[in-house]
Amino acid sequence: MAPAPGHLGRGPGSHAVLFYYDVAELAGQVSDYALAAIRERGMAIVIATPAHRHMIADRLVQAGLDLAAARANGSYLPLDARETMRRFMADDWPSPASFWQAVSPMVARATETGRPVHVFGEMVSLLWDAGLVNAAIEVEAMWNELGAQYPFSLLCAYPAGSPAGDHHQDALAEVCRVHSAVLGAAPDLGAVPGPGQPGRG
Description:
Blueprint: E1 15-20, H1 23-38, E2 43-48, H2 50-62, H3 67-72, E3 76-80, H4 81-86, E4 89-90, E5 93-94, H5 96-111, E6 117-121, H6 123-129, H7 133-147, E7 153-159, H8 169-177, E8 181-184
Parallel strand pairs: 1-7, 1-8, 2-3, 2-6, 6-7
Antiparallel strand pairs: 4-5
Helix pairs in contact: 1-2, 6-7
C-alpha cells in the first residue's frame, strides 16, 4: 500500500520516487502533491503523458481547483512528457546542455517568487520502459543537478512492474540511491532503501 500523500517530500531540494501499481493511485498522489503547492500560492509543473495529465486534471477539479484559472495565472503548468523529452534526447541519450535549456528556464521563473514549486515528471519512466535504463538514471542525476541550483521539490514515478527483473537490480538500486525518498513498493527492492526512507511503503 502506498504511503499517505503527507509522506511525500515537499521541501525545496527533495526528490522522491513513487513506485505505483495503479494509475488511480498515481493520479491521487500527484494531484495532492500539485495542490499542496498551488494552495500556498506556489506553482505545480506536471510533465506527464496525455492520459495521466487528464487523470490528474480530473482529480484537481474534483478537489475544487479552478483548473482554467490556475493555468491562466501560471500556478499550474501541464507539459507533455514525450515532447519535453524530445528537446534534450539525442541518439537515445540525454544531452546535459539541452536538458538545461529545456527545463531550467521554467523552473527558474517558477522559483523567483520564493513560494513552493512542485514538479512531477515521468520522462524517466518512459525512458526505462523503452529499455533506456541508463538514460533514465542519467536524467535523474540531471534533475538533482538542477535541484542544487533552484529551490523546488521533485516527484518522479515508475509503474512498479517496469523495473522488475534480476538484470535490473543494480539499476533499480541506483534509481533509489539518487532519490531522497522512495515511496510505494518497489519490486524486488529487497534491502535497498532510499537515503531517508524505507524501501517499502
